[in-house]
Amino acid sequence: MSPLNIKKLVPRGIRLRSKMRWKNGRWRLATTDRVFLEDVIVPFFLADDDVRHVLDIGVAWYTRSYPRLFKGKDYWTVDIDPEKQRIAGQNHRTVSATQLDSAFDPETFDLVVCNGVIGWGVNTPPAVTQALDACAAVMRPDAWLVVGWNDVEGHRVPGLEALFDARFRRVDFPPVGADHFIPETPYGHRFEFFRKR
Ligand SMILES: C[S@@+](CC[C@H](N)C(=O)[O-])C[C@H]1O[C@@H](n2cnc3c(N)ncnc32)[C@H](O)[C@@H]1O
After folding, report:
1. Residue 7 lies in a domain
2. Which residues in 73-109 are b (16+ Cβ under 10 Å) and which e?
3. What is the pLDDT of residues 11-56, one digit of tens each?
4. Residue 118 is part of which domain span?
5. 189 lines ligand 1 (CB under 6 A)
6. CATH of the domain at 46
7. Which residue's CA lies nearest to atom 24 of ligand 1?
8. How many domains does the chain fold into?
9. Is the CB–ligand 1 distance for residue 34 below 6 Å?
């Protein structure tokens, strides 16, 4: 068995826990995609005074410190799994990404982050369509949408690019000068940057 296959025998949660590092007073998951998210994407938006209301879709044990990371912003999270309420911050709603309008007023958010949800629960073109429409509904005009997903078999949703492009315009993310960024990961993670039309 190759070392790659042996790795797969170890549950994902345990593999990830071995990548936890202590930095700036908090534990962080030090995978290249998460380091890019926390060290490049988040600081960029923290410095943007036009971004005050932030919605982050999907909560995990390694995002527990995100209410602190987004300190100074009106930071909200949602997750479809009621169990995530326990580890989420105060500003949290148990709701599906496909039904955000049942939890938030229209045009509330300046930024929506949807990392690791498409292909990790929102798995079919109709579900993605509903989720993107729901995001657009709670985003103010010109608000940012950052999507992170894994471009690998088993997590790739067919026709995803066209679903994005039908609803949002791609924009360059200034720190990288491109509308997407692909950190080096074994799971094809990529970030895409959009603004509401
Ligand atoms: C891999 S974790 C991603 C967590 C986090 N957003 C991140 O940056 O890694 C996927 C999370 O998405 C949640 N999820 C799956 N389908 C969802 C949906 N339709 N609406 C909201 N959350 C969903 C799952 O319950 C899980 O907590």
Report:
1. no
2. bebbbbbbeeebeeebbeebebbbbbebbebbeeebb
3. 777 777 778 888 888 888 999 999 999 999 999 999 999 999 999 9
4. 18-196
5. no
6. 3.40.50.150
7. 58
8. 1
9. no
